[in-house]
Design brief:
Cactin_C; elongated; Cactin_central; Splicing factor Cactin
Length: 643
Amino acid sequence: MEMATKRGEGHSHSSSRKHKDKKHKEQKSSKHHSGPKVLEKPSSNNRELTEAGASKEFYELLEKMRKQTKERKRRRKELLKSVETAAEKRARRLAKKKAKQLKHSFELGWPGEYMGYSNDDNPYGDPELTHPFVWEKKLEKEGLVNISDAELASRSRQVLEANRIQLEKIKMDRLMRDKLKSDAEMMRRDRDGQQNFHWTEQEARFHLEQAPRAIDYLAAYVYCLMEGEDWVDDDYLFSEPQTYCENLSLSDCEDLVEDIDVYKRLQEGAYDQFWNNILVVVHDRRKQEAVKSGLAPDSRQAVSSAVMGDIEKIFEGKAVEQLIELEAHVVAKIDSAEDGLDIAYWELLLSLLRVRIAVTQLHQLHEKLAETNGDRMICQIKAEPTGGREIKLEQGAGQTPGPSCSTGNPTRKFRPWSELENRTTDDEMIQAYREGGYSPVYVSKDSLPAQARIVRPKKEVPKFTESNISSAEKESIEAFENIARKGMGEDEATFAVEHPVEQQDVMRWSDRFLPRKPRYFNRVHTGFEWNKYNQTHYDLDNPPPKIVQGYKFNVFYPDLLDPTPPKFTIIPCKDDSDFCIIKFHAGPPYEASCLLSYATANDVAFKIVKREWEISQKKGYRCIFQNGIFQLWFQFKKYRYRR
């Protein structure tokens, strides 16, 4: 047929060529016989015919090339089919079928997540999923009974597209709402942070301003002097009153002087001697701070260190009465104004003497208060800065030496062990052993070092014992919990059915054999199960509910007497078939004793999900008992649906 077409085309071309040659001859003969030459314009009809013929030839050539390309593809396809294997043929047909299904789904207007569904494979179990749903009652009500399938499919696509657009809009609105909410929350946190910053500063300033100052301690001290032993309690353990005036700044000294004046007026001269002594100490402290700040000259720099040592020797070993007599003598010496008298020296001596008198009187007052109130006061005596500390073993009248008193030299100077030479170490040890140096020695209050505290054995020793026991037990529990917390991930949480009860009574070391319940630290492993249904109805933004995927039990048996490892049993839950009870049992002291008048169930049990366990170590199963910890870790089996 193609050959016939070509022959037809050749015949038409030859006839047109003959017609053109004949016309050309006629025009030439007419030009030869005619007179002068006349130019003629080509007609519009001839131009249109020429263009139409050219376009027709172009389209015919294009169609011919298309047919040739199609023929080559067909031959290539037949060649590939002839050499392909059975597996390749099956894969080709499946791909063709899938492409056809995708095309049909696209024609139905399904979104991208539903493209892979078919009548045989869909989560809804619908064998006619690819066919448009026909709601005959609704169509009858709308007067569309005779609607065609194509128009019905078009209406279905429009509905799906409208629903998709609406869902996208809802999702965008939700994202925008979440973003606005997060921005508002961030702004609120920033605002609260700024407010809290100011509140923190105000609170710190408030506590600093309301903190107890020196006048508060001194006022409480005076109140203790007024009320006596009935008011003193363990919460009020005072130091010597002059110690509250140490480390005061210049402004603090000025404020303390004003506060002391107020208290002196309120008490109407009841404790003027006490307040006057405190004022002397405060004035001396204020002079020192003024010298440090450069506001006043230092009168002590005008006196050499040797002279200061002589002044200290004058004060050393004198009682208060002797110091007062010395003060009167110094005042008379200054008032005499003799010729050649060093006024600066005598004024410095007088100021130091008055401070010494005030400190000595305050020290005597504190000793009387400590003797009155017994061992409920802190007796602080400032030690002299000597190279070694000398302790005098004195025996007062009426005192009988106890069995732990020393029988050697009553006055013995103890030196630090690091100062002893290697060759004298053995001699010192032998001498200390002979003198009873390794036994507790009775000492008087006067020989106590600074910051020493007198305690009552009947009251304080049980406290120390209880605190040591409780602290040791607490450290062991913390060590067990640290071991159990290792490897805890974000998808795990602590699991405890029993409510934690604080320990009421302190456990003594003798109580370690009494029956008790073990402590535990359990974890539950939760997560998402991305099955086909959850993949269809949920996503990462809207995840499915979490389910329990396993447990990790850590039960502590630190005082287990029997080396037999603890055991666990599974008990069905009577009220709920989806759960079961796991009970842990161990030997004494973690079991009920029949010798006691009362019986207690010391086993621990927990309510867990009833599912099949993975007992492979590769799946995380663990059941061991070591270092006093019984560990039972397991995961639940995951079932996969297979057709």
